[in-house]
């Protein structure tokens, strides 16, 4: 016999199917540009600028080769005089009547993005957690005003203070340095981190730390051993927000970095300038650029979904 | 273990006074119960002793040492919270081992292992050591919480209604177990409860708190037989003491007393009784029976052990044991 009964709190099959359909449509719509840029990365340069655009095309790694190399155009005679190409990418470049002159700057810019992105995220979450804990637990004079002040740093677009920051950074030698960019992104992220984390800290019962302090731990010890692990959900959420901001930030990166600490976002568009509209290289660069933040979000997602474990304290 | 002394302790939360001039001395090796309803200041007292809360005024002594400015960790108390407050990201084993691993103690692995296993056996949670703290039933959680307190030898054990969230049977078991452990360890325990049964069964001495003021201190017998006010008399005993307004009954007054009290077991049903009453309800509690009675000028409860059956609505005669009668003035204080 088929059991057709269902719990009244559970949604019916139809409404669940409808919800799934809506989500799928939404996902497809938002994913179209991303899919397009990923596909562009696998087109040849000529195919990437064909009009009307090609949905079906012969995949090519030209974009990736162009992304990682700098090339010079050579005459037919020069190319014929060369020994045969040793690698598949040399062959690919020569078929476009060019030779590889050396590696591009992409790898270094990408590494800068990683250092600055993760550095700023770690610092924002760490400082944010300490501040949020203090705001959550201690009697601080003018607490509400201070919280508002912290929030007010985000009431104007950060770029509004670009000029003073640019001058200041040049004077103190932080311009075009990793440390400078980490500090800048931390400052921008910190208000969000404090506000988000304070909410999570408020939810953690004080009994945990009190028990730990009685069990022979200092407040700092109790914070690291007991409070922080309890705030995992909040920390994961905050880290994702901070990471996405630092990773994608463009305006300050253009303004403040040039050689030493330039991140990937201002670098990728410069590809256009070098010998024609190389959309496939941009597609390739953007695809690679998406990967770390995607992995980061997916890794932290399980902490987000796990929910908050208050089970061991009775409310 | 140490003796604990609170001297003239005051504590306000904002404008609300929680403790008003509290003086208590808890002797070494004593099971001291603080009894009082919600809001009487019981938990505040524990928190002040543990160092989680600073008194506004007054001194705290452990033996002869003044502890006011000592951090909670260095006071070396152990605390069982009313809410279980187990560390949810740890296993039961790690919860029990947590105090032993603290920077203050840093016990060796073998010592921790031995102590944790011992205490887990004692509290019958040894088969749950690998469980996460969140995968336990309420009773198990509370036993782990007790275990975390008992795993070391602090100056004093502070317990804040540790059994209140358990079911009756487990509560009874743990009550006996706790008293036994206390005797075995010769431990100093300050135990807070609003449950008079816990107070009378476990306490060496009871302190009755009312609105942040200590009403009376004494052994359970002293408090039960000789309460100094109606308030204290009401705190112990089930069913509660019968309090009669002397202006409305035929009970003879004494020394300008306005109220008289008598415990339900000191009223007997006898044909020689002076008062004619009706039986209102009959509650059979196994060996004992609780009868509530009513008449024009007197009503109350009787606790009797007779096996006679009683019918509701029936007329009976009752006698009050005058020797056990307690008299109170119009402020509710004992005369």
Strand order of the largest sheet of chain A: 1-2
What is the number of independent domains of chain A?
2
Average pLDDT for all residues of chain A: 88
Please identify, by name, the CATH architecture of the largest domain in chain A: Orthogonal Bundle
CATH class of the largest domain in chain A: Mainly Alpha
Q: Using DSSP, what is the number of strands of chain A?
A: 2
Query: What gross morphology of chain A would you assign?
Result: globular
Give the end-to-end Cα distance of chain A, rounded to a whole number of Å.
43 Å
Strand runs of chain B, count: 18
Q: Oligomer, anyone?
A: heterodimer
SSE ordering of chain A: HHHEHHEHHHHHHHHHH
Basic shape of chain B:
globular
Number of helices of chain A: 15
Report on this model:
The complex is a heterodimer of chains A (315) and B (335). By secondary structure, chain A is mainly α. Chain A folds into two domains: 45-104, no CATH class; 107-306, MetI-like (MetI-like fold, Orthogonal Bundle). Chain A is built from 15 helices and two strands. In chain A, helix 6 (106-137) runs parallel beside helix 9. The model of chain A is unreliable at 307-315 (pLDDT under 50). Chain B is an alpha+beta fold. Chain B folds into two domains: 4-234, 3-Layer(aba) Sandwich (Rossmann fold); 241-328, Nucleic acid-binding proteins (OB fold (Dihydrolipoamide Acetyltransferase, E2P), Beta Barrel), CATH 2.40.50. Chain B is built from nine helices and 18 strands. In chain B, the strands form four sheets. Chain B has a six-stranded mixed sheet with strand order 6-7-8-3-9-10, sandwiched between helices. The longest helix of chain B is centred in the middle third of the chain and has 18 residues, at 168-185. Chain B starts with a strand and ends in a 7-residue tail after the last strand. Chains A and B meet through helix 10 and helix 11 of A and helix 2, strand 6 and helix 5 of B.
